[in-house]
Amino acid sequence: MLSSVIGGERLAPGARVHRSTNPSRTAEVVAEVSLAGADDLVRACAVAREAQDAWRDVPAPVRGQVIAAIGRLVEANKGALARVVTREVGKPYAEALGEVQEIADTCAFFLGEGRRLYGQTVPSEMPDKQLFTFRDPVGVVTVITAGNFPVAVPSWYIVPALLCGNTVVWKPAEYAAACAEAFYEVFAHAGVPDGVLNVVHADGPETYRGLERALGEGLVDKVGFTGSTEVGSRIGELCGRHLQSPCLELGGKNPMVVTEDAELPLAVEGALFSGFGTAGQRCTSLGTAIVHESVHDEFVRLLDEATRSAVVGDPSGGVLYGPMIDERFAAGFEKVLGWIEPHHTVLGSSATGRITATAPRAGFDGDPAAGLFYHPVIVDGVRPSDALFTHETFGPIIGVTKYQTLDEAISLANAPGYGLSASIYTTDPATVFAFRRRISAGMVSVNNSTSGAEAHLPFGGNGRSGNGSRQSGVWVLDQFTRWQSMNWDHSGRLQKAQMDVLEITPDLGFRL
């Protein structure tokens, strides 16, 4: 039985329990987690507030050494942590290893930032006066994450937040509680002090009520949220009442434009990975392939062929993707499949919906009846007015539509109103830069898939995908620090800015 950790102490198990099951074998319980309430979240924020002064005063280079220790422990436990991810959320083991590596990469980047939290000395307009800037931690950070990347995405928030001198209250997804437990244990054994990182297992309604109270009581200085656009908008509204700007990483409807001069086999490989990797349950998953009419038929043929031959099934093996993460996502994907309309052409597998004995898939690896396994779906003929075109689908489904001109392709790519990731396949540099300039996405890939982040590049979206905040690299430091300026006048007299300034008079009428 897992429970929340506040100030280094476990909460006693309560009456409300969530069972986290293996989505590949739903009869197998991975963990039971006692769910906390709103009061517990508020208390965790209060404990984090009490711990923040001492953690802030630990020199930043020393905090960097704690981050270094986390990275070393992650690498030492890489296989074990990846196996927990595979077992609890159904991510193929090779992908899970990559996700764990992303924590190590994040630590490798930020351990050095402990020695580079630079401010600046700035020249004054007056003599005997010095100007300075400093980065200060924001204070208490509340982080709420989804479970599709149960350890990598939390590290994007928590590692830089701790490095900058903040304390953290983390609310992980209930269905990824075992992953959260393993993640916390690594951080605790790396030397993160009690109260500096607190974990609260709670459901959505209790989390929102607790966050609302904690903000009202002045216990939270920054909120980080990864999840749906709908929930993110509610959290953004709540934070706005308290004049706070949250870090929101939300959904995506990510386009891939395939031009007439694209290398089609490469484009198909990118579509296969970004559309069906993690069973399409990434915020950066491919939504719609927007294909030039001259190569549309061949692209669809090749994608259908590659999808039908891809191995789906048990995530412990070498599969393209495994199960849906949880029953709620399976139910959501069933709804999405209801958006398929008569004018669509459906390709990619022998059936749609759940893979079963009566709706089998050739080459399936494992027991389809044991888990939440779904057929991959390609839907050709998608129109801009279709729900499949405008809404995030969060499952193994790719829409395909045609275009004639680049202007039309960019208009289609921007139309759903999301702005997370976009991809273009072309061999023409002029097309690349025309696309980059006008696409609304925060991240652009050229001859690469819509998925795939590196730990030192800014990650985040615009529009319905987020509020413009960015994670990863030096850019995330602006989320977890505030700039403070200081002026020091050692002239021994009051010098008034903009008034007591030396003036040098030029002869502006001079002409040669």
TrEMBL record:
The keyword NAD applies. Keywords: NAD, Oxidoreductase. Its EC number is 1.2.1.3. Residues 18-485 form the Aldehyde dehydrogenase domain. It is an enzyme of class 1 (oxidoreductase). The active site is at 249. PROSITE patterns: ALDEHYDE_DEHYDR_GLU. Pfam families: Aldedh. Homotetramer. Belongs to the aldehyde dehydrogenase family. This is aldehyde dehydrogenase (NAD(+)). The lineage of its organism: Bacteria, Bacillati, Actinomycetota, Actinomycetes, Streptosporangiales.
